[in-house]
Every structure is written in C-alpha cells, then in structure tokens.
Design goal:
19 helices; 15 strands; alpha/beta; about 525 residues; about 45% helix; Aminoglycoside 3'-phosphotransferase, Chain: A, domain 2; P-loop_NTPase; Aminoglycoside_PTrfase
Length: about 525
C-alpha cells in the first residue's frame, strides 16, 4: 500500500469512522482503498493519473465520487448513501461535518456505502459453489432492463463511433506493453493487437450503425462477477465505472461482454452461454453478436492491463502472480480469433414437447444461440414475453399473417446469428413442411449444416404439461389444450428427404444429451466444439 500522506492510516484509527471502535478492515484495488467499519464501507480514491483515469487532484476525486453515487443509485440506491468530505484536524482527520476552520477545504472525499457481506458477491458465491444457473437468467433480465432504461448516446457526442471505440482498445495494448517484459507475452500481445486492428476496420460500419440505432448507452462499464451482488435473493449491479465517460458510454454488447469474458476465464462457459442467451432473449439484440468476440477480447485486455498495472505496483510473489494473471487474460483475448463453426438448427414439435426446456443443454454446452418464436412473435407486436395477448385460436397474434411474419423474423435472425459465427437454434413448432423447407434452403444458401431436432412425447404427457404451463401463466407461450389439439391435427409428417436431417428426441423424461450428442455430431460434426 502506497499511502504517501498517511490519510488511509489516519482513517483507520479507531473512532475516526463511525463504528470503527472494533477496528477497520482495508481492501485495496489498483485505483482505490475501501475501508470497512461497522455497518458502512468507505471508498477513498487513490491520487493517480493512469491515462484512462485521472484522480490526481482533490477536485477530480470529488467529481468522481459524485459520479459514482449517481451512477450506482440506478441499480442499488439502498447501498450508495452519500459523498462525505475528509477534514484534516491537527494530527488527525475527521469525516463529514463542517470545516474545522473558515475557508478550509476538504483534504479528500469518501463515498459512503452500506456494508454488505463479501458472501453476497457473485464472485464469492461462484467460487463457493453457491450459485444456481437459474440466477443467471434473472441477472440477464436485470441487465437487459437496466440497459433499456439507460440514457442513449447520440451521434456526434464522441461516444460509440468507430474512432471512440478503438481508442481505449489501443490504449490497453500500449499500457500492457509498457509494463511487461516477457518476450512470449509480448509476442502474444502483438498477435492479439494485429487481430483487433484488422477486425476494427471490418467492424467500423457496424459500430457506427449501432450508435445510430441507439445501442450505445450510459452502461455499467465494469460488469464482472466482482461487481455483482445478491440482495434479498436477487442479483444486482454495483460499482459502475465513474472515472471515464468514454468507458461508460458504450455499446450494450460491450457491457455484457465483460461478464461473458469473466465467466469464460473462470472456466464457466456453460453459465456464460446461459447468461448470454437469456440476455439476448430479453433484449432482442441478436445483431449485437457480430461484435461480441471483439468486445470479449477487449474486455480480456482490460483485465490484462489491470493485472499489468498491479504487477508494476508490487514486488516478489505478488508481482509473479499478477504477471501470470495478465498472461491468462491475454490468452483469452487471443482465443476470440479462433475459427467458428456455425450451424442452423430448428426445434420442431407441438406445444409441451420440450423444445425450450429440453434444448437448454445445447445452449449451455454447445454455445447455441436459441431464438424462441413465442418471444419474437410478441416482440413483433410490441408485447413483453410474459404479457398475454388475449388472442383467440387462429386470430390476433396467432393469425396466419402474424405467423408468417414470425417465421420470416426467425429466418432473419438466423441469418444474423450465423453471419456472426454462431450456431443458431430456432425454437418454433415448424408443423408445416414448407416452414421447415425454407429454413433448410436458408442453411444451404449460408453454407452451414442444417438439423431438425424433432421433440415429442405421448399425447397425455403433452396435455398435462400444457395444462400446467397455462395455469402458471409465466411463459411466453399462450398455448392451451385446445391449441395443442389443433397442432396435433395440423402437423405434417417429415418427408423422406427431411428424415436424413432429423434427430428425434423423446421428452417423456429428460433426454440424455451425452447419448444424443453422438447422433447430433453425425448431422453437425462440430457439435460440442462450436463454443468459443
């Protein structure tokens, strides 16, 4: 800890901070000190100028504290309470209150927060095996809704265009290069940098288009497991980036890429895939997949830079560990350049056959992007997935015209997902041969494998599932038993030419995907290896 003026030590003296009589616990990061005392946490920003942040003056630190308070009250207002001045008083310090003398200015500023147990952090819970996969579904919804409500950047404001996006990427490479000496790491750094620069040229029109479409917003900016907590059973964001508007005003995909990257680094690709799919389903931003690998690489380089900065601040074993951490992040950044193995799969079957619930292993294990017709149909008509449309069988959202629009939208999204390099699974009934044939022709045109996953179960099982789901009223599907019966009458069997691409899945009980995967690989050789 480099506390040249002794302020941290002064603040840690018993009685200075409220509730500190029993002692103060100190947590240090590369840019701040956090002092834990009683019911509160007090954050003091380090007097640093690192290029990407400038806390070098008291006034700049005050501005950063006030920004931190505003930004984090968007998601956890009950935690972030106030910005508090620190006054020098004789040989010691005092927090809050009036100036000790007329005209005296604060020595510094603290952000006062309600303290929470470290066990509330998602990073802690993940390491302890105390996180359920379902929590990442709720997290994805929370993040997507946060993005939807965030302020939108406009072209010309200096955020989100190709030049603004590339500037911090280049800064990362420069600042890592300044702080590492290992020739192998420097060579890897050069390879990642060359790929990032080449991709930036290709993606420049995409960056500009996303800005024009309103996808660049005042985001969190530092969305990794260490900045996520569980409050009253629900996942929440905290500790958003306050020190740089340029890093905070970013594409929403750049925001979620941080969490995807963090989970991947920890070897939790299944959770990364689950979160990604749930966020895409809630946001509808499948076009953003085109940018995801580039942003995952960028986010890995952000953490590599932080590890390199930390290595320059410490010695001995701590430095060795920081350099090793930098190398791990650099390897993950490089991995985003790997070739992809896209495919087009459709989940065919009547309501209640398990198309959504039983395809989850494909989403998690194979990195498949699932697009649900029930969700996209409602999105086309401006409805949230869980909102009932009140449409009668064959009418409203379920008229022939609405169904045709829905299937056309599925094909459009499939094209976008495949073009981004990902395998896609279209989750719809696909009862008609013409519906299946059009997607088969699309797959052939895109030059990717085509697979029909045929989900089915005995009719009595289907009816019981549909009845329970309709009673619960928590799913995007509005199918009831009458709809199921109509589907059973209307479905057209597979033609002989289709059967070569069909994988039949009996869902009367949970399918064994370890067995099914062997059959799937005959139709899609890259199954199980397409995950980045």
């Amino acid at each position: 800890m480099r506390d040249e003026d002794g302020l941290v030590q002064a603040l840690m003296r018993p009685g200075v901070l409220p509730g500190s009589e029993a002692g103060v616990e100190l947590i240090e990061t590369h840019i701040s000190w956090v002092l834990l005392a009683g019911d509160y946490a007090w954050k003091l920003k380090k007097p640093l100028d690192l290029g990407f942040l400038d806390f070098s003056t008291v006034e700049r630190r005050r501005e950063a504290c006030e920004a931190e308070l505003r930004l984090n009250r968007r998601t956890v207002p009950e935690l972030y309470e106030a910005v508090v001045p620190v006054w020098r008083v004789g040989e010691g310090v005092r927090v809050d209150g009036d100036p000790p003398a007329a005209g005296a200015g604060p020595d510094d500023y603290l952000v006062r927060m309600r303290r929470f147990e470290q066990s509330a952090l998602l990073a802690y819970r993940l390491a302890a095996g105390a996180l359920t996969p379902e929590l990442f579904d709720r997290l994805a919804r929370h993040v997507a809704d946060f993005h939807a409500a965030a302020a939108v950047a406009k072209p010309g404001e200096g955020f989100g265009d190709a030049a603004a996006v590339l500037a911090p990427v280049r800064q990362n490479f420069a600042q890592v290069r300044e702080r590492i000496e290992d020739p192998a790491l420097l060579a890897e750094l050069a390879r990642v940098e060359a790929w990032a620069e080449a991709q930036a040229v290709m993606l420049a029109p995409v960056f500009d288009a996303r800005l024009a479409e309103g996808r660049v917003r005042e985001c969190h900016g530092d969305l990794h497991l260490g900045n996520l907590i569980v409050l009253e059973g629900e996942p929440r964001l905290f500790d958003a980036i306050e020190f740089s508007a340029e890093l905070r005003w970013t594409d929403v995909v750049a925001d979620i890429a941080f969490l995807v990257m963090d989970l991947q680094l920890r070897g939790r690709n299944l959770l990364a895939n689950r979160f990604l799919n749930a966020w895409l389903e809630r946001s509808g931003d499948y076009a953003g997949l085109r940018l995801l690998p580039w942003y995952v690489s960028y986010r890995a380089m952000v953490r590599a830079k932080i590890a390199a900065i930390r290595a320059s601040q410490v010695d001995g074993e701590a430095r060795t560990q920081s350099v090793a951490e930098c190398a791990r992040y650099l390897a993950l950044a490089a991995a985003q350049a790997r070739p992809t193995a896209p495919a087009l799969l459709i989940a065919s079957g009547v309501s209640g056959s398990g198309k959504s619930s039983q395809s989850q292993p494909l989403v998690e294990q194979c990195g498949v992007i699932r697009v649900r017709a029930d969700v996209e149909r409602k999105r086309l008509f401006g409805l949230d997935a869980e909102v009932a449309s009140g449409s009668a069988l064959g009418g409203g959202l379920y008229s022939a015209e609405a169904t045709a629009r829905t299937y056309a939208r599925l094909a459009e999204l499939a094209r976008a997902v495949v073009a981004a390099g990902y395998p896609v699974l279209l989750d719809a009934t696909f009862l008609k041969r013409a519906q299946r044939r059009s997607l088969s022709e699309l797959a052939d045109a895109l030059g990717v494998p085509f697979v029909i996953l045929a989900f089915d179960a005995p009719s009595e099982v289907l009816r019981e599932r549909v009845r329970r789901r309709a009673e619960a009223g928590k799913d995007a599907s509005e199918a009831d038993v009458a709809v199921l019966d109509a589907q059973l009458r209307a479905r057209e069997p597979f033609e002989e030419e289709e059967l070569a691409r069909v994988l039949s899945i009996d869902t009367r009980s949970a399918p064994d995907w370890r067995v099914l995967m062997h059959s799937l690989r005959r139709l899609w050789p890259a199954a199980g290896t397409a995950d980045r």
